[in-house]
Design brief:
The complex is a heterodimer of chains A (about 230) and B (about 475).
Chain A: H1 4-10, H2 15-36, E1 40-47, H3 55-78, E2 81-87, H4 95-108, E3 114-122, H5 124-137, H6 147-151, E4 164-167, E5 186-188, H7 199-211, E6 224-227
Parallel strand pairs in A: 1-3, 1-6, 2-3, 4-5, 4-6
Helix pairs in contact in A: 1-2, 2-3, 2-7, 3-4
Chain B: H1 27-32, H2 37-49, H3 52-61, H4 68-82, H5 87-102, E1 105-107, E2 113-115, H6 119-139, H7 146-163, H8 174-188, H9 193-201, H10 216-236, H11 240-245, H12 254-271, H13 279-286, H14 300-316, H15 325-328, H16 333-341, E3 348-349, H17 351-365, H18 369-390, E4 398-399, H19 400-405, H20 413-426, E5 433-435, H21 436-443, E6 457-459, H22 460-471, H23 478-485
Antiparallel strand pairs in B: 1-2, 3-4, 5-6
Helix pairs in contact in B: 2-6, 2-9, 6-7, 10-12, 17-18, 18-20, 20-22
Classes of the chains: A alpha/beta (about 230), B mainly alpha (about 475).
Chain lengths: ~230, ~475
């Protein structure tokens, strides 16, 4: 998640230590969003481009993800969190991790309190291309392709549009994240590095969002999307 | 003969004096869809195997030794097709069984001839099923009265008559049946090898339920306890003279055990929701590769619950990040030989092994005579080619060593022909692709998305490629493992 490497470098630690420290931030944010009544929370854990990182770092990252899933599965389920993954298509994902991801989704599929979408091996363009393929496969005539009908072919079509994207560590790019869904999203760019990101930072971001004058989307119960990576 | 069934079986059919002895409304229809029928089928198979001709047929032709659960499942499936409401389905199944039995003839190692289509043999098979049904009802505390017994017997006679044009060789009335049955037990049955194989192996190989999938060690431990108990129950339910001849002692407490077991299946049948105690439900729950069709699964809730429990169990139990690569992906030639090719489990690849593959496919796809012939011919051509290429010592069969020495020859033109015929018979609607429904009919599982089946369709080329990869031992395939390798 954004700033893990810098966080580690500031402490003269290996990059992987930054990824390790990120877990606490993830749990804190999920908890904060849950308490705030956020119904849809998405985390950008790993992009399709992240596969270009050194193999050793990827290996550690995958292990961390798997450990986190196993460690927190029960408490997420107990809190009524429905966990979903976005992406997860690459054959390089080790089968035990894929199995755990499938198990976590199966376990929590009927929960409704909050939906946590973990974008893992995700690429916004890829999702759009896949949706186009799906439309063509279904033989939808061109005049029937609308924004609404197109969106129904995206993964997790029940997911509402993103209201707020939080990108940590001062980075100000989209980086191929849910390109279709962020069309009208508000963006905030806190300077804090992801491993230091805590509930109070999340509250601040929600506050910023509440003060903004939005033309699209409701403001009663905000849905939020945290952007790490 | 009056048509009165004991109220316990099903109140709804007590007055159903239908002219149709099989099909819905018959006692056989109801019983054969209950989970208790599994006990009947198991016990009947043991009694069948004690018949010398059936023993010989099983030893030389059956995949029982290697795949006992497949046989049990096919027995159950076959019975259910024979009582199908649609008469055409029944006739079709009877014709298929006739073709299947006609292929099982020969002479066993001791020179005894056997013939699965022998009317006396088939009468005995139906007799064991009838008697096992009666015993099941008695042991679960609901003895059938005279009229119900008469009715049940007439239903079994009708079942046999489906296969035998002259009605078959069972005694025409129930009064004559019991002396026949006692004569068979006393005079004809023997202490055969297959009886012991079945008792030793059937329960030792029960597939894991969803909860314990991927936890083979935990399942094996539970099965090590439950297996002998299930065997003891089956043994204790056998007729006393036969049990003595088989040298199987009556274990202390076995009587109590057997009553408890039968009684609890009966109570389960009465108290649990009907869908849960249907035999197919239990069978599909045990089938590791089974995935329900997306539409109209009455058990979606139960399955979902089981899937969740399984998911939680797996997430909470330790599991290594890297599975032993050689175990899961690459199988050595010898493992492929013993798990896939040697269907009868005798250590050699012979025609019965190859025929067993064709038979399993024909059963699953419910092929008609013409398609079945094409399939068997293709497999037979392949077998002749294998024999010519691989049987270096000329004993007519291929040993594991002979196979390992020449795996390259596995991708032959005859095998490609097998793949093409398999594609043709699987492609039921003839549109030159295998869609999700056709795929499910063959493999009993949904498309494997991991293998890139995003399109939910398989072309001929892709289908043939996967089959050849699997048969050459090159590519792992869950689907084909489920078809050929697993019990």
């Amino acid at each position: 998640m954004d700033g893990n490497g810098r966080w580690a470098a500031q402490r003269s630690l290996p990059r992987t230590a930054g990824h390790q420290a990120a877990e606490a931030a993830v749990i804190d944010v999920i908890e904060a969003a849950h308490t705030a009544g956020v119904e849809w929370l998405s985390l950008y854990a790993f992009s399709t481009e992240n596969w270009r990182r050194p193999a050793a770092e990827i290996d550690v990252l995958l292990r961390l993800v798997r450990r986190a899933i196993r460690k927190h599965a029960l408490s997420l389920h107990a809190r009524g969190v429905r966990c979903r993954f976005l992406g997860v298509a690459d054959p390089r994902i080790p089968p035990p991790l894929a199995r755990d991801i499938a198990d976590l989704m199966a376990l929590t599929r009927d929960n409704r309190r909050m939906t946590l979408t973990v974008a893992f091996d995700h690429g916004g363009r890829r999702d759009i291309v896949e949706a186009a393929r799906s439309l063509i496969r279904d033989g939808v005539p061109p005049e029937q392709v609308t924004e609404e009908s197109f969106a129904r072919h995206l993964p997790h079509p029940d997911m509402p549009e993103v209201d707020l994207v939080i990108r940590t560590s001062g980075e100000q790019r989209i980086s191929n994240f849910m390109l279709w869904q962020v069309a009208y999203a508000e963006w905030v760019f806190p300077e804090v590095l992801w491993p230091d990101f805590r509930a109070e930072h999340f509250w601040e971001c929600l506050d910023v969002y509440r003060r903004r004058d939005r033309r699209f989307g409701g403001v009663q119960v905000p849905t939020a999307t945290g952007k790490g990576a | 003969m009056s048509n009165v069934a004991p109220a316990d079986i099903d109140d709804g059919i007590a007055s159903a004096a239908s002219a149709d002895p099989l099909g819905p409304g018959s006692m056989l229809y109801d019983l054969s869809h209950q989970v208790r029928w599994g006990l009947v089928a198991t016990r009947a198979i043991v009694l069948e195997a004690a018949h010398p001709q059936i023993d010989a047929a099983l030893i030389t032709n059956s995949t029982f030794v290697a795949h006992p659960w497949r046989r049990l499942r096919n027995t159950v499936l076959s019975t259910q097709r024979m009582v199908n409401p649609d008469e055409r389905v029944r006739r079709r199944e009877a014709a298929r069984l006739n073709r299947l039995h006609a292929r099982i003839t020969g002479t066993d190692a001791e020179g005894r001839p056997f013939n699965a289509a022998d009317p006396e043999v088939r009468a005995w098979v139906v007799a064991t099923m009838f008697e096992s049904t009666v015993t099941m009802c008695r042991l679960s505390g609901e003895s059938l009265d005279g009229p119900a017994l008469d009715r049940l017997y007439s239903e079994f006679l009708a079942l046999l008559a489906l296969m035998e044009p002259d009605g078959g060789k069972l005694p025409p009335t129930l009064r004559e049946f019991w002396p026949y049955y006692e004569f068979m037990i006393e005079e004809r049955l023997e202490n055969t090898e297959t009886v012991h194989i079945i008792l030793d192996r059937l329960f030792a190989q029960v597939p894991a339920p969803p909860l314990l999938r991927d936890r083979p060690a935990a399942w094996a431990a539970g099965r090590a306890l439950a297996g002998p108990v299930a065997t003891a129950i089956t043994v204790a339910s056998l007729p006393e003279p036969l049990r003595a001849r088989l040298g199987l002692p009556e274990l202390p407490g076995a009587r109590t055990l057997i009553h408890t077991a039968y009684l609890s299946t009966r109570l389960a049948t009465r108290l649990l929701p009907e869908a849960w105690t249907r035999l197919d439900t239990v069978m599909t729950m045990l089938d590791p590769k089974y995935a329900p069709a997306p539409d109209g699964d009455p058990l979606a809730g139960l399955r979902r619950g089981a899937a969740k429990a399984g998911a939680l169990f797996r997430l909470l139990t330790p599991s290594p990040m890297t599975p032993p690569a050689d175990e899961s992906r690459l199988r050595s030639a010898s493992r492929f030989f013993s798990e896939v090719l040697d269907q009868t489990g005798n250590g050699y690849l012979d025609w019965p092994d190859v025929a067993a593959m064709a038979r399993e496919i024909a059963t699953r796809l419910d092929l008609d005579a013409q398609d079945e012939d094409r399939l068997f011919t293709a497999f037979a051509d392949w077998w002749r080619e294998l024999q010519k290429e691989l049987d270096t010592d000329g004993d007519g069969r291929i040993s594991g060593q002979e196979y390992a020495a020449a795996t390259a020859a596995m991708t032959s033109s005859a095998l490609i022909r097998v793949a093409e015929v398999l594609f043709d018979v699987t492609d039921a609607d003839g549109d030159q692709t295998i869609d999700a429904r056709e795929y499910r009919a063959l493999f009993r599982t949904a498309f494997d998305h991991d293998a890139g089946d995003a399109d939910e369709r398989l072309t001929r080329a892709e289908f043939v490629r996967r089959f050849l990869n699997f048969m050459a031992g090159r590519g792992h395939s869950d689907a084909y493992e489920g078809l050929f390798a697993q019990s």
